[in-house]
């Protein structure tokens, strides 16, 4: 029997032509690994790095991973003194030999289980794969920071709700940074009991659930067994149902009453939200329930027609959700009242409000004041859109009956 000594282990080769087990390799053919330059990937115990002596004259054992001719070093918790190594900086203490063999055997088993996938991975991915079981407990992700990154990529309305949910979560937790490992079933239940408002109790947890699932999708690689976020707290929690939205439409009589409301004076020549909400409500109703965001952004006005691509659905439809509406004589005075004299856009709302969100906020303020003026319990800007649909449906039914 021939005996060959490596940096760390003794290997016994009965026949140079036969395969034997190599504890430090992803393969089994020792001769191919040691005596040719054509190997692609293997684990090797580098042992002691002479230049990395510590202040207390000890050395840490490192494992060298080589994959596609690129190498990385894996630190271990094993520390040796000069008494444990030879003058050539090779291990001679069999306790450390056995411990390093155990570590490499664990890494090798992971490689064997994912042998097919290794060929498409770089050395950093292989390193992440074989050490992920050591890192999973230490993995940390700030769900707030992650959620804010997601919100930046979402559409304005969706992103705004995501930020609202995150701010509510921060207020509950009492801190700006919340590790994803803190999001447990008990944490969520306590948060849901704390949330004020039936709509928010359903909406906010559902948004955090979406963020949690997106984080798992981004950081977990299930086919390779890399599970950095193992918890699924929402799987054992039943979120409350969203309550039915209140009826937002108002009668034709109330719409007529709203249109006849007189102006209220503005403070310091500013636009009065009361007057603005009344006028824009009627614009939306008479322009076939156009949304506030589209009124704010539309730019095409030709031959008494306003043409725009509906912001909410333009990215989901092949025609870009293009809509063209004829401006009827009854609504023409209001259209002219708010026309953009520069011609850059149809209306001058963008000159008064910096963005569509602040424009919508002003409308919300004005709608609250209009409720009392026309004596209704519930009135929002969306009421114009809903009321148009309800009125049109009644007219269609009356025509069919006639």
Verbal overview:
With 402 residues, the protein is an alpha+beta fold. It has three domains: 2-133, no CATH class; 143-236; 252-401, hpI Integrase, Chain A. The chain has helices spanning 30-35, 94-113, 115-118, 123-135, 143-153, 156-173, 185-194, 198-219, 252-259, 273-286, 292-297, 332-337, 349-352, 356-374, 382-401; strands at residues 2-5, 10-13, 41-48, 59-67, 70-80, 300-302, 305-309, 322-326. The strands form three sheets. It has a three-stranded antiparallel sheet with strand order 3-4-5. A three-stranded antiparallel sheet has the order 6-7-8, with no helix packed on it. A hairpin with a 4-residue loop joins strand 1 and strand 2. The radius of gyration is 34 Å and the shape is elongated.
Main attributes?
hpI Integrase, Chain A, three-stranded antiparallel β-sheet, alpha+beta, 15 helices, disordered N terminus, 12% strand, 402 residues, 45% helix, disordered C terminus
Order of helices and strands: EEHEEEHHHHHHHHHHEEEHHHH
Global geometry: elongated
- What proportion of the residues form beta strands (DSSP E)? 5-15%
Rounded Rg: 34 Å
Give a short account of the largest sheet. Answer: 3 strands, antiparallel
Which class of secondary structure composition applies to the elements?
A: alpha+beta
Low-confidence stretches: 1-41, 396-402
* CATH arch. level architecture of the largest domain: Orthogonal Bundle
Strands ordered across the widest β-sheet: 3-4-5
Distance between the termini: 106 Å
């Amino acid at each position: 029997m021939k005996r060959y000594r490596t940096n760390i282990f003794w290997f016994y080769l009965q026949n140079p032509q036969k395969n034997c087990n190599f504890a430090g390799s992803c393969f089994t053919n020792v001769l191919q690994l040691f005596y040719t330059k054509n190997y692609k990937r293997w684990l090797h115990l580098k042992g002691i790095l002479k230049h990395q002596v510590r202040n207390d004259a000890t050395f840490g054992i490192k494992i060298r991973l080589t994959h596609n001719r690129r190498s990385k070093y894996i630190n271990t918790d094993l520390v040796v003194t000069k008494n444990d190594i030879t003058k050539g900086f090779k291990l001679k203490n069999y306790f450390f030999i056995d411990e390093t063999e155990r570590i490499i055997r664990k890494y090798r088993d992971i490689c064997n289980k994912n042998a097919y996938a290794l060929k498409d991975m770089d050395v950093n991915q292989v390193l992440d794969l074989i050490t992920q079981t050591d890192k999973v407990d230490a993995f940390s992700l700030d769900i707030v920071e992650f959620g804010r990154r997601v919100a930046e990529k979402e559409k304005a309305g969706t992103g705004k709700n995501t930020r609202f949910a995150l701010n509510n979560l921060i207020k509950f937790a009492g801190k700006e940074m919340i590790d994803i490992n803190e999001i447990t079933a008990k944490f969520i239940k306590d948060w849901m009991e704390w949330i004020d408002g039936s709509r928010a109790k359903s909406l906010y947890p559902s948004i955090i659930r979406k963020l949690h699932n997106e984080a798992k999708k981004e950081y977990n690689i299930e086919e390779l067994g890399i599970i950095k976020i193992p918890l699924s707290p929402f799987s054992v929690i039943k979120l409350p149902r969203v309550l039915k939205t209140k009826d937002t439409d108002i009668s034709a009589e109330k719409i007529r009453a709203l249109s006849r409301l007189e102006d209220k004076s503005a403070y310091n020549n500013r636009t009065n939200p009361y007057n603005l909400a009344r006028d824009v409500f009627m614009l939306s109703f008479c322009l076939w329930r156009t949304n506030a965001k589209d009124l704010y952004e539309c730019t095409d006005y030709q031959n008494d027609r306003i043409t725009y691509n509906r912001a909410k659905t333009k990215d989901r439809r092949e025609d870009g959700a293009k809509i063209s509406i004829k401006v009827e004589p009854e609504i023409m005075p209001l259209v002219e009242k708010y026309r953009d004299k520069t011609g850059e856009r149809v209306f001058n709302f963008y000159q008064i409000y910096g963005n569509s969100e602040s424009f919508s906020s002003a409308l919300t303020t004005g709608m609250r004041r209009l409720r009392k003026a026309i004596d209704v319990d519930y009135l929002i800007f969306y009421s114009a859109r809903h009321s148009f649909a309800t009125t049109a449906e009644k007219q269609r039914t009356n025509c069919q009956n006639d």
